[in-house]
Specification:
This protein has one domain: Alpha/alpha barrel (Glycosyltransferase). Strand 1 and strand 2 form a beta hairpin. With 425 residues, the chain is mainly alpha-helical.
C-alpha cells in the first residue's frame, strides 16, 4: 500500500498533502461512552478514515490509504451481537494507546500526524475500554487536537491542488471535512477547549457549502476532493446531525442531494449501486483496476455514503441504500471481506469501512450464516484474522494485508468495526 501519498497528507510538516481525514473525539467522561456515542464514533472513524488522498498517485494507491470509520449522528441506535472477541478489541485498544506520544500525538511515516491521531482517538473511545492507559491516551490526544485544530483544518492551495481537479482555491481554505471531524470531537468529548469551539466549527462548515448555482451545488467545499468527495460530504452531514441540526434542515437535505448523485447506475452488475468518490472527475465507467486508470465506484465511498444515509433516517429498503447493499454484496470476496475496488484483494481497512456502513443499515456482521457470511465466515471474523496475536511489541495491532506490519491506521479502523456498534440511524 502506498502510504506515503496518503500519510504525507496527515499533518506532516513540509509535505504537500494534508490528509483530509479525521478528527475528533475524546476526552473524557465515561458518561459519554454510551451506546449511541460509541455508534457515532464508529461512523466517524469510518469517514475519517484515511481518506483516499493521494494527489498524482494512481487510484489504486488511494485504495491502500483509504479507511477508517466515521460516525453518524442521529436519533436511534441499533446494536449487533457482541463482536468476534472482547479480547481482540481490548488488545487492539491497548496497542493504540501505546502508540500515543506524551504530547498526545500519534506518529506515522516518521512524524506526528493529525489524521492518525484523530483516528486513534476515535477508536479508543469507540472501544469503550476504561483501563488507565486508554483513558490517559484519550485525554492526551484530545488536548493535542484542541491545541492544533487550525493547522489540521486549514489547507494550502498546494494541498488542494493535489486533491481537486477543478476550482482549486488560490488561498488557504478550510477543509469542511476536517472541520466536520473537529465538530464531532467537540460534541462527543468533555474536553472544554474543543467544546468551546463548536459554534465556530458549525459556522465555518456552513460557510463552505456551495449554493444551487455553484459548480458542485450543495457540496461542502470550494472544490470536490476527487479521492474523498463522498467521505467529505458524509462526515459533515454526520457532524451537523450529531450536533443537533434536524435532518429536515435544508442544509442537510441539500447536501444529501449531492451525495446521492454520486451513485452509479446503468453500467454493469459490478458497478451499479456503488458510489464514486466524485462522479464528475471519477465517472462510473467500470474500467478494471489492471489498466492503472480505474475510475468508478469503490467499496469505501459506498460504505461512507451508507453511514450518512442511515444517519439521515433512510431505511435499507429504500432505493438508494438497497442498490448500495447490492453493490457491496456483489463485490464481497472470500472469506467475507472487501478490497477497495472490484477485484482487489481483501484488506483490513476496506473491510472495516464496509462493516461500519452495513452495521449502520442494520445488517449482521457477526453471523456465520446469511448473505454476508461467505463460506460460513462472518465479516467480523475475517477482520479479526488481520490482528497480531503474539506477545511481542506489536501485539494487538492490525495489519493492512498479509505480509505488512501492524500499524495504527489499520488498527484503529479494525478496533472501531470490532466494537460491534451500529451507527445511529
Amino acid at each position: 500500500m502506498v502510504l506515503a501519498t496518503c500519510l504525507a497528507s496527515t499533518g506532516f510538516s513540509g509535505l504537500s498533502l494534508l490528509l483530509l481525514s479525521l478528527v475528533l473525539i475524546a476526552g473524557g467522561a465515561l458518561a459519554l461512552r454510551s451506546a449511541k456515542l460509541r455508534a457515532s464514533l464508529m461512523a466517524i472513524a469510518l469517514i475519517g478514515g484515511l481518506l483516499t488522498l493521494g494527489a498524482a498517485t494512481a487510484r489504486p494507491a488511494a485504495a491502500a490509504c483509504s479507511a477508517s470509520l466515521l460516525p453518524t449522528a442521529a436519533t436511534s441506535t441499533t446494536t449487533t451481537a457482541p463482536p468476534v472477541s472482547s479480547t481482540a478489541l481490548s488488545a487492539g485498544a491497548a496497542y493504540l494507546a501505546s502508540e500515543v506520544n506524551a504530547d498526545g500525538s500519534v506518529n506515522s511515516q516518521g512524524g506526528a500526524s493529525y489524521g492518525v491521531t484523530v483516528q486513534t482517538l476515535i477508536a479508543l473511545v469507540a472501544s469503550n475500554d476504561t483501563s488507565s492507559p486508554v483513558e490517559a491516551a484519550i485525554s492526551r490526544s484530545a488536548s493535542y487536537l484542541a491545541a492544533n485544530w487550525n493547522s489540521y483544518a486549514l489547507l494550502s492551495p498546494s494541498t488542494w491542488a493535489g486533491l481537486c481537479v477543478t476550482d482549486v482555491p488560490s488561498v488557504d481554505t478550510y477543509s469542511a471535512m476536517n472541520l466536520g471531524y473537529l465538530l464531532l470531537a467537540a460534541v462527543t468529548t468533555n474536553n472544554p477547549a474543543l467544546n468551546a469551539l463548536k459554534t465556530t466549527f458549525v459556522a465555518d462548515i456552513e460557510a463552505t457549502q456551495q449554493t444551487s448555482s455553484g459548480s458542485n451545488p450543495y457540496y461542502f467545499g470550494a472544490c470536490v476532493n476527487q479521492y474523498a468527495g463522498v467521505q467529505s460530504q458524509s462526515v459533515v452531514v454526520d457532524a451537523l446531525l450529531l450536533n443537533g441540526m434536524p435532518a429536515s434542515n435544508s442544509i442537510l437535505t441539500n447536501a444529501v442531494t449531492w451525495l446521492v448523485a454520486q451513485q452509479c447506475s446503468g453500467v454493469d452488475a459490478g458497478v451499479n449501486g456503488g458510489f464514486s468518490s466524485d462522479i464528475i472527475d471519477n465517472p462510473c465507467t467500470g474500467v478494471t483496476p489492471s489498466t492503472g486508470n480505474y475510475v468508478g465506484p469503490d467499496t469505501n465511498s459506498t460504505g461512507y455514503a451508507l453511514l450518512a444515509l442511515a444517519a439521515m433516517g433512510e431505511p435499507s429498503s429504500s432505493a438508494v441504500p438497497a442498490a448500495a447493499l447490492g453493490y457491496l454484496q456483489t463485490n464481497e470476496t472470500s472469506p467475507s471481506g472487501w478490497g477497495y475496488y472490484n477485484g482487489n484483494a481483501v484488506d483490513s481497512n476496506s473491510t472495516g469501512v464496509v462493516i461500519s456502513g452495513l452495521l449502520a443499515m442494520g445488517q449482521s456482521m457477526s453471523a456465520s450464516t446469511g448473505i454476508w457470511a461467505v463460506g460460513g465466515v462472518s465479516p467480523l471474523a475475517t477482520l479479526a484474522t488481520f490482528q497480531v496475536i503474539d506477545s511481542g511489541a506489536n501485539s494487538g495491532g492490525f495489519f493492512y494485508q498479509a505480509g505488512s506490519l501492524p500499524d495504527p491506521i489499520s488498527t484503529y479502523v479494525a478496533v472501531v468495526a470490532l466494537s460491534g456498534q451500529a451507527v445511529p440511524s
